[in-house]
Design brief:
332 residues; alpha/beta; Udp-n-acetylmuramoylalanyl-d-glutamate--2,6- Diaminopimelate Ligase, Chain: A, domain 1; UDP N-Acetylglucosamine Acyltransferase, domain 1; ten-stranded parallel β-sheet; nine-stranded parallel β-sheet
């Protein structure tokens, strides 16, 4: 269960400073890595950890090369974090048991569902009538793909994912609720990864759409008729309400909320715990959260926020009075 350092560089590129015959037995964080392990540094603010690291070799960028060389062996790569990602892929290819295609005996596949022969359907999965599973796609245990929903090629759906449950649609009727039947489906593109226990609801009339390359973390809720653009990534516990449209190459931090019927442009980054309450038409990084504080201080600040509107009106009145005084001929 080891790789030569030289073999890693031969496979992935980069510039090695050190012994190519060094045997790497694992990959570990800088602060705990041992002499037979490989670590990486992508953020310069952790440079002190690099200085003291016991790792046998460290992946660094050109700017950290001198510091890394003073410590020991290193691989210099233009993008250390990306290089680290590729090392993990190489490691898994070399050491992990191959994922076998086929359908687990405990899975339930409707006769009218279409599952590509190269797909892998795990234990206790359910693939309902009219659903389609693409080539090379892996459904881990207890995944449900609802009727008429489609999952593209080379996707990975982790345990407990539910695709195509009914969207949340009810009309008020004399103090009760009348169900709006959800007649759409869910369409998922290629190379999509969906984390454990994430739910993507079917559309009310049109389909909910997840485009190619989207990455969704665990415990995410995607409402009905949402459209998520290609290569967008969302961290855990994000909630996207119905009919929101999120562009391509966006990121949404953990616990953030996107309200329904909003549109986010391509390349919009939403910070963790932010609530997006309006559409965003310009790429950029957006944050809307109240910083954590001592509770007593937080309550004072929250009380002040409630008065901002009246304070603004008072300030405008003062400014107007000052302007009138400055324009008065009697003003000295």
């Amino acid at each position: 269960m080891a790789l030569r350092l030289g073999a890693i560089v031969e496979a992935l590129g980069g510039v090695l400073h050190g012994d190519p015959e060094l045997s790497i037995t694992g990959i570990a964080p800088l602060e705990v890595a041992q002499p037979a392990q490989l670590a990486f540094l992508s953020n310069p603010k952790y440079q002190q950890q690099l200085v003291h690291s016991q790792a046998g070799c460290v992946i660094v960028g050109p700017a950290q090369q001198d510091v890394a060389l003073a410590r020991g062996a290193c691989i210099v790569a233009d993008n250390p974090y990306l290089y680290f990602a590729k090392v993990t892929q190489l490691w898994k290819r070399q050491h992990a048991t191959a994922q076998a295609s086929g359908i687990h005996p405990s899975a339930v596949i409707d006769p009218l569902a279409v599952v590509d022969p190269s797909a892998s359907i795990g234990p206790l999965c359910v693939v309902e009538r009219g659903a389609r599973i693409g080539a090379g796609t892996v459904l881990k245990s207890r995944v449900t793909v609802g009727e008429d929903c489609s999952v593209g090629a080379h996707c990975l759906l982790h345990a407990g994912v539910v695709i195509g449950a009914d969207g949340f649609g009810f009309a008020p009727n004399a103090g009760a609720w009348e169900k709006i039947e959800q007649l759409g489906a869910v369409r998922i593109g290629d190379n999509v990864e969906i984390g454990a226990n994430t739910c993507i609801d079917r559309g009310a009339l049109l389909d909910t759409v997840i485009e190619n390359g989207v990455k969704l973390d665990n415990l995410i809720q995607i409402g009905h008729n949402v459209h998520i653009g290609a290569h967008t990534a969302m961290a855990g516990c994000v909630g996207v309400a119905g009919s929101a449209r999120i562009g391509a190459h966006c990121t949404v931090g953990g616990g953030a909320i996107v309200l329904g019927h909003l549109t986010l442009a391509d390349h919009v980054n939403i910070s963790a715990a932010t609530v997006a309450t309006r559409s965003i038409s310009k790429p950029g990084h957006y944050t809307g959260m109240f910083p954590i504080d001592d509770n007593a201080q937080w309550e004072k600040n929250a009380a002040s926020l409630k008065q901002l509107s009246s304070l603004r009106d008072r300030l405008k009145a003062v400014e107007k009075t000052l302007e009138q005084l400055q324009q008065s001929p009697d003003t000295p």
